[in-house]
Amino acid sequence: MDSKADFEPWPEAPAHPGQGAAGRAAAAADPAPGGGKYVASSVRGAAKILVVGPLGVGKTTLIGTVSEIKPLFTEAVMTRAGAAVDTPAQSTKTTTTVALDFGRITIDEDLVLYLFGTPGQHRFLPAWRDLAKGALGALALIDPRDVAASFDALGHLEDLDLPFAVAVNVFPDSPQHTEDELRMALDLLPGTPLVRCDARDGTSSNQALIALVRHLILAATESP
Ligand SMILES: Nc1nc2c(ncn2[C@@H]2O[C@H](COP(=O)(O)OP(=O)(O)OP(=O)(O)O)[C@@H](O)[C@H]2O)c(=O)[nH]1
Ligand SMILES: [Mg+2]
User: Fold this and answer.
1) Which one of 101, 151, 165, 183 is CB 3.0 to 4.6 Å from 63, fit for a cystine?
2) CB distance 171 to ligand 1 below 6 Å
3) β-strand 95-97 against 101-108: which pairing, if any?
4) Where is this region: Disordered (predicted)?
5) Half-sphere exposure for 74 (CA within 13 Å, toward CB)
6) Is 111 helix (H, G, I), strand (E, B) or coil?
7) Atom 2, ligand 1: which residue's CA is nearest?
8) From the CB of 205, is ligand 1 less than 6 Å away?
9) Does the beta carbon of 73 lie inside 6 Å of ligand 1?
10) Residue 28: CB partners within 8 Å, gap ≥ 6?
11) Residue range 112-127: average pLDDT?
């Protein structure tokens, strides 16, 4: 896919997407209503959400950014022995997730999300089947510098029949793709949310999760 110099802006995740739970979620997104060690007594619903994407796309970073509890990380140092089988990462990245990341975010006064980050190395793809058990949906992170690296992750979500939203994690040296270019390259259905975020930034990361929640609510209310 070609990048375009004349960048056409396309939507960030809407700050206040509408009525109902997702609308309240958006209104409450900044600041998040949670933050305590325990889930607030007002919370009546919980959803398990996978955070997926290729190696080094920012899954662990995003969960660390949004989690209101101390996140669980399973980082291991990438060794020379692993180089024979693993995808190489950029030189600044020295560790990789080897089991899962775990975090929690109260996204609304009555809805909490439990976030499960998957490992990015290709050899861990089979582990997703277990991680996905009981998940309601997934947030798929895309690296705009290497869109094709996400094909496996999106294909795997489709195999698992897991609804998802796509969040483009923007890096400083990212090429500027239009929304249409990305939708075409990723072969997204028209209803699949596509938003931009910075995994290091709480507001845009929260709003990417809200776009996913909206999508899940819509899918649940539309299905017979
Ligand atoms: N500039 C920039 N750097 C980022 C961003 N997100 C993550 N990073 C950096 O990119 C690197 C990769 O982040 P991780 O969160 O470990 O990526 P991951 O997807 O969990 O990687 P694996 O678990 O190995 O698949 C880290 O050094 C982050 O600091 C971003 O939005 N912008
Ligand atoms: Mg990770």
Assistant:
1) 101
2) yes
3) unpaired
4) 1-28
5) 11
6) strand
7) 171
8) no
9) no
10) 107, 108, 109
11) 93
3-state DSSP call for residue 149? helix
Ligand 1 atom at minimal distance to the Cα of residue 169: 31
31 pLDDT exceeds 90? no
Strands annotated E in the chain: 45-52, 75-77, 95-97, 101-108, 111-117, 135-142, 164-169, 194-197
Q: What is the mean pLDDT of residues 63-84?
A: 89
Q: Which distant-in-sequence residues (6+ apart) come within 8 Å of 178 by Cβ? A: 4, 7, 8, 10
Residue 20: left (phi > 0), alpha (psi -120 to 50), or beta?
left
- Name residue, tokens 């510098």: 145
Q: What is the mean pLDDT of the chain?
A: 85
Contact 100, 74 (CB under 8 A): yes
**Which residue's CA is minimally distant from atom 14 of ligand 1?**
58
pTM: 0.84
Other C-beta atoms within 10 Å of 78: how many? 19
Predicted confidence (pLDDT) at residue 23 exceeds the cutoff of 50: no
Arithmetic mean of pLDDT, 69-79: 93
Mutate to test the pocket of ligand 1, among 55, 61, 170, 205 (most ligand atoms within 8 A of CB): 61
- How would CATH label the architecture of 20-27+43-222? 3-Layer(aba) Sandwich (3.40)
Q: Is 10 in the pocket of ligand 1 (CB under 6 A)?
A: no
Q: What percent of the chain has pLDDT over 90?
A: 63
Six token digits for residue 128: 């997703």
- Name the residue at shortest CA distance from atom 9 of ligand 1: 58
